[in-house]
């Protein structure tokens, strides 16, 4: 077997066997580990062999794998194909070069395609069998498809294209793929740097941390660019790290990104929750009425202050310590969570009550709420982590209340240790359920990536099926969790023409990464799509009630994307459907 480098593509090789031919036919060695190793390719790196059969004219491509990429050995075992590779590695000396090859069952030669190159082929015979030997197991979440007829590729395919898969039919542009590869390249450089740089926990400062989830390079969650901008959206690594010391789950070593003025408006669900929460706190702690309070503001809104003032409370002045300190979904948005918890402890009067409310890690993991992992949301709290971090600042968790907002949150009540009040049964119950779920350890947390990939692929396939069936689709909501969801699902305007949002400040903008335009709710009502994908899935009841109010519904199917995409059941007796 002879190995020949492909001059047009750095690192690509053709391996040509030397068959033994006699009257019986031929015998050919199609793979030789020693020959492969001699050109710097590790033959032991390959983990999977696959085989495809294609009818004449079928085109498979152009395909690319994001993240760490995928190297492959490609061979036509029967028939003939035209095989094409395009170098999309930003660091490569042959970046943007392309090369084509005739692979046939008669020659049995193999083409080595380096990771980071787009690959595709067209079957020239009826049929054509192509085998693949790849060095990473398939992950649908990393699949990228480039339109075979993209004018920037300028590939001269020899036959009319007879058939393509749904994924190839919905393929993106070469320009989008290049932008993704440049972003992945920056991400890879960042990861190489973190291999040698210790990352200290944002909560306790320990260096005993480990990466447990890697969602790749993602755009900023709250950066909604104008819809007519054409530049690729900036991206940064989106990773979760676990601290073995305090068990805090948190974003890894990434700097704060693109500060943006909040564009969202507060939901009716959030407003009602604030009112209910204050009533419950005053019911359980009537001594707080009329006392001094201090609130650490949140990007999510949900302020308690108006309701507390209505109960006779006054806000703390200057450095005055408060009898009630409130933080509703605020501390998770602080990069230095340990320092921020210390500030809240300092604000609390000796016998005061500190209330922290945050999105709970337990439903995030159990409900596959991967889209809540995003830039700007620095910490993902379990109760166990809060107990450990609180002890550092001489605070103790005395009780908890589970609340059904943002997909499942915890209200945690803390006091100074010096107050002499211990934890009640509510604390012990939640800690026991967290321990049973294993959310303080790597084995369970690392499953998030696999589950996220499966749900994202399912969403893409569902929208593609709707399109194939001729059903129109639009979305409701432009929340900060939408960019991650749509990016991982590889969903753009081709499958989701637009979404709508109640915030006028978002109209005329787009979801970063996916490019899905954001319009007004009136546009959704006017379009009357067959399917409404509810991106604000945590308030789906509110969304459905709003759209169906006063008989305004049009019989749409409402779909939520998580934990797996599924339709929401709407009662025929719903006021909007009578």
Query: Quaternary arrangement of the chains shown?
Result: single chain
Please give the share of residues in helix.
10-25%
Q: What is the level 1 CATH name of the largest domain?
A: Mainly Beta
As a whole number of angstroms, the C-alpha radius of gyration is 28 Å
* Strand order, largest beta sheet: 1-2-10-7-12-5
Q: Low-confidence runs (pLDDT<50, min 5 residues)?
A: 192-196
User: Could you say which overall geometry the principal axes of the C-alpha atoms support?
Assistant: elongated
Q: How many separate structural domains?
A: 3
Assigned CATH superfamily of the largest domain: Jelly Rolls
What's this, in brief?
The protein contains 14 helices and 29 strands.
Account of the 3D structure:
This protein has 578 residues and is an alpha+beta fold. It has three domains: 2-179, Jelly Rolls; 268-445, 3-Layer(aba) Sandwich (Rossmann fold), CATH 3.40.50; 448-577, NAD(P)-binding Rossmann-like Domain (Rossmann fold, 3-Layer(aba) Sandwich), CATH 3.40.50.720. The protein is 25% helix and 27% strand. The strands form six sheets. Strands 1-2-10-7-12-5 form a six-stranded antiparallel beta sheet, with no helix packed on it. Strands 18-17-19-20-23-22 form a six-stranded mixed beta sheet. The chain has a six-stranded mixed beta sheet with strand order 26-25-24-27-28-29. Strand 15 (235-243) and strand 16 (249-251) form a beta hairpin. Helix 11 packs across helix 12. The radius of gyration is 28 Å and the shape is elongated.
């Amino acid at each position: 077997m002879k190995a020949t480098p492909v001059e047009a593509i750095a690192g690509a090789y053709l391996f040509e066997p030397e068959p033994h031919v006699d009257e019986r036919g031929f015998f050919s060695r199609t793979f030789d580990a020693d020959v492969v190793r001699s050109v710097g390719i590790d033959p032991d790196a390959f983990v999977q062999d696959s085989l495809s059969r294609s009818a004449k004219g079928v085109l498979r491509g152009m395909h690319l794998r994001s993240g760490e990429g995928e190297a492959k050995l490609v061979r036509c075992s029967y028939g003939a194909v035209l095989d094409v590779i395009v170098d999309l590695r930003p660091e490569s000396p042959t970046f943007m070069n392309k090369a084509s090859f005739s692979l046939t069952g008669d020659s049995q030669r193999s083409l080595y395609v380096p990771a980071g190159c787009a690959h595709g082929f067209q079957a020239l015979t009826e049929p054509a069998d192509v085998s693949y030997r790849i060095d990473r197991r398939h992950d649908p979440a990393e699949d990228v498809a480039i339109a075979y007829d993209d004018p920037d590729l300028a590939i001269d395919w020899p036959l009319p294209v007879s058939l393509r898969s749904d994924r190839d039919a919905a393929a993106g542009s070469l320009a989008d793929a290049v932008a993704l590869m440049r972003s992945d390249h920056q991400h890879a450089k960042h990861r190489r740097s973190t291999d040698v740089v210790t990352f200290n926990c944002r909560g306790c400062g320990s260096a005993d941390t480990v990466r447990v989830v890697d969602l790749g390079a993602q755009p900023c969650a709250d950066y909604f660019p104008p819809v007519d901008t054409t530049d690729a959206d900036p991206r940064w690594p989106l990773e979760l790290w676990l601290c073995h010391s305090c068990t805090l789950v948190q974003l890894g070593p990434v700097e704060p990104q693109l500060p943006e003025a909040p564009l969202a408006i507060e939901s009716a669900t959030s407003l009602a929750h604030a009112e209910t929460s204050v009533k419950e706190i005053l019911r359980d702690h009537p001594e707080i009425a009329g006392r001094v309070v201090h609130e650490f503001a949140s990007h999510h809104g949900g302020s308690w202050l108006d309701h507390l003032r209505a109960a006779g409370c006054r806000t703390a002045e200057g450095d005055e310590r408060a009898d009630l300190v409130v933080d509703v979904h605020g501390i998770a948005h602080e990069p230095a969570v340990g320092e921020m918890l210390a500030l809240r402890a300092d604000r609390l009067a000796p016998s005061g009550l500190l209330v922290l409310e945050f999105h709970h890690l337990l439903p995030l993991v159990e409900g596959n709420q991967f889209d809540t992992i995003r830039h700007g949301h620095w910490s993902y709290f379990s109760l166990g982590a809060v107990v450990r971090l609180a002890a550092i600042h001489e605070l103790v968790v005395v009780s908890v209340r589970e609340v059904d907002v943002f997909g499942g949150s915890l209200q945690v009540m803390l006091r100074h240790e010096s107050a002499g009040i211990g934890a009640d049964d509510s604390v012990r119950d939640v800690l026991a359920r967290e321990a049973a779920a294993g959310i303080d350890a790597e084995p369970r947390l690392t499953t998030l990536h696999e589950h996220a990939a499966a749900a994202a692929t399912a969403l893409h396939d569902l929208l593609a099926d709707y399109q194939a069936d001729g059903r129109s689709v639009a979305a409701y909501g432009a929340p900060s969790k939408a960019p991650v969801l749509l990016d991982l699902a590889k969903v753009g305007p081709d499958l989701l023409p637009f979404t709508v949002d109640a915030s006028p400040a978002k109209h005329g903008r787009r979801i970063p990464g996916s490019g899905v335009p954001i319009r007004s709710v009136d546009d959704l009502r006017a379009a009357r799509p067959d399917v409404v994908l509810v991106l604000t899935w945590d308030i789906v009841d509110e969304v459905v009630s709003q759209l169906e109010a006063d008989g305004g519904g049009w019989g749409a199917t409402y779909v939520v994307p998580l934990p797996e995409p599924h339709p929401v059941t709407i009662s025929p007796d719903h006021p909007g459907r009578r």
